[in-house]
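Hello,

Following up on my earlier ticket. Below are the two sequence lines again, exactly as submitted.
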Amino acid sequence: MDTRGIEQMFDFQRLPSDGLILLLLLLYSPVGFCLMLLRIFIGVHVFLVSCALPDSFVRRFVVRVMCSVLGLHIRQNSPRLRDKNVKLYVCNHVTQFDHNIINLLTSCNTPLLEGPSGFMCWARGFMELGGGVASKAELADTLRGYCSAPATTPLLLFPEEDTTNGRAGLLRFSPWSFSLSDSVQPVALTVKRPLLAVNVPDSSWLAELLWTFFVPFTVYQVRWLLPVLRQNGESHQELANRVQELLATELGVVSTQITKADKAEHIKRKRHIAPHTTRSNLGARPRTVPQVFLGPSPGAEDPRVMRMVHQVKEVLPDVPLSVITRDLLRTNCVDTTITNLLESTEQYHTEPAEGATSGPARPRTSITPSIAVPPATLKPAAKSFGRSPADRHMSLQDRKTALYEYARRRYIEKHGLNVEEDS
Amino acid sequence: LIAADGQISGNKNTNNLLESVSFLRGPEDTCFEGGVFPAILSFPSDYPLSPPKMKFTCDMFHPNIYPDGRVCISILHAPGDDPMGYESSAERWSPVQSVEKILLSVVSMLAEPNDESGANVDASKMWREDREQFYRLAKQIVRKSLSL
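Thanks for your patience. The regenerated structure is below:
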């Protein structure tokens, strides 16, 4: 089994776990603080210079040199591979300054997907999209228009939509980025930094910037890959998967099906059990997120399977995607999977409340199916009381559907009916 | 929201808190086994002083369910009114009864029809005289409820 779980994809602690490095860090910290103060002032200058000079080779060179004073060393290999005709660069996401780094190598634009536009958006080097862009579809439309316009600078997108530490795996690439253009140029980015983690989830960009100033240096290695063209009849998702695979191979990591939402969920869960958790029992404690998440599970990329997974997820929102996928790959039928999941006594519904009260010390025996659970508890009951009436109604709808599916299945099994014949 | 022995129940819609939809599963080893029967529980404005009313929204053929779906069961009758005249007040509605209990009672009523207080005369008659035919009809109703 692949031991690299979702835990390995993100650094949850900025400080190193090794005692020796921690000692070194302690010794370095006075220097680091001085360096940070100094660099804050230089940083203001870098910002002003980058504002004053027009976007050109000169500015990029000057700012790049000034950035190395700030501790941002940028290396790139094979810049000749960069294709002038490609309008879309896709890059893996490691830190919150990835777009600034790439921008120092070539001029490109990155839209800010979340957060308000305005001064901060502009100052951080994001492209401002005119007007309030409400939905993702609207955003995609705007960007598609941008891409098709002649003589514009290329667009740089991060289809992972969230950061990883870049050492274990890539998040699932969202297909909408690939709907913008038929040819994309993948960019592989590795970020290395001594003493500290390059990025921790849930920290603001300002904190990240200060830590960047604190450490002696951070090395950004940018590798340009050959442009990828959409093949005939290839869907956005297929193209996304292909590019993800390419980038993962280049970086020496695995491409996973973990999404941004899964990451957020994991962080939330982590926060609940964090007070009890120490580093040492990370390995011993059974993970709440099954490791099946990781690794290119065969057929998981198949859009048909994905669609079925989503259908099941709608009915049983509590069951993790990985469990659904595993079962679906075996049964290849939405109904059967729902029945299996309803009938199986596996308790993957690890609610945050439970995690908070019991803590990791309590061994989770729930992985083993227990026969003792009476069938009544298998019925789709609401796990929580929804906040809004609409939520509650949705929950009722879902449970109702599940109940009907279950009853129908049972009836058919019991009476040996043929559905096609009778319906 | 109640989950009692496989029944689920919830508010039918957001603007009417006095009506609730329940889905009852036919009890095992009876002629209604396997069915899922939707029913509306309507609560009067003076609930819980007065009992709620229950009405199946699917086709039912049962001695204690009126042809229009209303359920005739002692727990849903206030001690004062007694349409049939032979229900002990012990098993009548009282404010301490819960929706869960009602659903359980209705499920057990599905399992064991009480042919003395016949709400559906045809069904009572058939239950008494032609049990086989009744089972056949019940089976059809179960299938219909699952839209099979």
